[in-house]
Amino acid sequence: MKNFLNELFTWVFGISSLIGLIIGIVPIAFLYFNETSPELEALKIPFISMALSVAILSLSLVITNLYYGFKVNRLVTIPVEHYKIEEKLNSFIKIITAQSKLIHNVLHHLRYIIYSFRELNYMVTKKKLKVDEIIATNTFNSLTQFLITLADNIKIYCDKVTQDDCSITIKLIKKIDNDILIKTFIRDSSSYRERKESDFIDAKHPKIYYATDNTAFNTICSPDFKDTKFISNNLKSLFDEGKYTNSNPKWNNYYNACAVIPISLVPNKEKPHERVILGFLCIDNFKGKLDDKFFIDSISGISDILFILFFELDETVLHCQKSGVKHEQISKYVNWSQSR
């Protein structure tokens, strides 16, 4: 209602000024271009001067009205622009909050897992005792819960950033002879039910894939690749151009965009392409928006944390195997055979 009254006032004021301008110009033109009686001749100059003054004043009012009318309309849009800015700010705050919770949750549980690994390793290497089966079982159960919680928290964060339903997987890598093998170790609980057949033969036997069968893994593992990650917001376009391959023929039923971040370390900074890769943190969805620098930096930080975790896990699993300790996660971790 307020905006309507402002616009109505502007129009009325503008039309009134325009009418005044016309009223001022018409007498001037009439007196100037037409002959007048001697009686009116004496009044001609004062009348023209007065009419000209009215015309100039009206013209000034028209210009002033247009100028301030524009300013008023600009002021009217400020609340709308303020709302948009506030909306963006609130969205950004939600993302920052989700990121903070993600980092806190990861580090909160990670410290316990690392401590448990060190405790198991200490029992073997220092005390020369056989690892207690119950302690080992509790440790690996906690590891499983931690990784699922981690994947679920990453999903919450990614969903907020991309405004889409994302899926998260943590994959492991192993080089056997000249082949580079890939397998899924953990998937977020939301996508697990729908996509577990792509990842696992059964609970103890993950499916094994060759890195050469997937463009993302093959690209990252290539010594010629200059980047440390693979990101695409439109895999279908790459596929149509013959630039994307995937061993899963149904991949496009589940996603059209992906970000694959290696869980890796560069031991020698002078040779940046000689990386130690333990696995991959993978994110996929349909809408994309996975190439935001702030987002990628956050996810890359999580992959760095995972490197520490899997580095410790590798040593712990080795000690447990020497002590004869068995657990489902140990089997999933060490098993690189396609058969059951």
From TrEMBL:
Please identify the protein, giving its name as recorded: Uncharacterized protein
Specify the species.
Leptospira ryugenii
Q: Which residues cross the membrane?
A: 12-33, 45-68
Q: Which UniProt keywords apply?
A: Membrane, Transmembrane, Transmembrane helix
